[in-house]
Amino acid sequence: MNEIRDSLAKIPKTRKIVSVSIMFGSIFGVFFVGSYFNLFGAKIDFVQKPSTFLFFGFMLTGLFGIFYLFQPIKNAFKSIAIVAALFFAAALFGKFIRGEL
């Protein structure tokens, strides 16, 4: 527990403010887009509901805020690209399993 506290103490205050703002803004965006476009509980369909891209974009933005808090911005972009590739691979795998490809 002390290690976490010590590592958070070394982070500059402006980086903390920016990353927390990104995280909370993306949480708000996920719930706003999900409720406004009725995405919660619906099938993930990028063709019929292109707002799903925005939904996943806000999720990736929130993850970027978390990565940016603990890493330099260049590494945060690399990490978020890896996570986006994993999301894309999971989507393709799901379509393959359902026989849509």
Q: Give the rounded overall mean pLDDT.
A: 90
Strand-residue proportion:
under 5%
The tally of strands reads 0
Question: How much helix, percentage-wise, in residues?
Answer: over 70%
Largest sheet, in brief, is: none
Low-pLDDT runs of 5+ residues are none
How many domain modules?
Answer: 1
Order of helices and strands: HHHH
Shape: elongated
> What is the CA-based Rg, rounded?
16 Å
Number of helices: 4
SS-based class: mainly alpha
Spatial separation of the terminal alpha carbons: 47 Å
Provide a compact summary of the structure.
The chain is mainly alpha-helical.
List keywords for this structure.
single chain; 101 residues; mainly alpha
